[in-house]
What does this fold into?
Amino acid sequence: MNRVIAIVPIVLALAMTAAACHKDSSTTTTTTPSPTQTTDTFNGTVAVGGSASNTFTVANPGRVDVTLTAASPPATVVMGLGVGTPGDAGCTVLPGASTNTAAGTTVQLSGTVTAGSLCVKIYDVGNQTAAVTYTVIVAHF
It folds into this structure.
């Protein structure tokens, strides 16, 4: 019977230690809502040897996708397409943020930008024979 009494204090001590070390298993999870994508559609005309630009505002840093969805005549004309910063001198295209492309349905220019005021520039790359009307879509956050 002495053995049982000697073990009881040890078992009680272990149980109290375990209870004191017990951590609350619930965790708090904070979720941040994802920014909403904004799509801007711009239409205009580019004269032979000229350019046109449209300004848009990016609310959150992230990806921007630019798609020249229509340009004609002719429907196969290749245009310059760039993203830049607007200013008194027009739209200054950012380094590495331009391409020459025909109109299509897939994204032709994509990159990561900071929040702020930006512009998309559509310009003659030297092959226009008449004014070209265009539609460009800019998707951003």
In short: The domain at 38-140 is CATH 2.60.120.380 (Jelly Rolls). The beta strands are 38-46, 51-58, 62-72, 78-87, 90-102, 109-113, 116-124, 132-140.
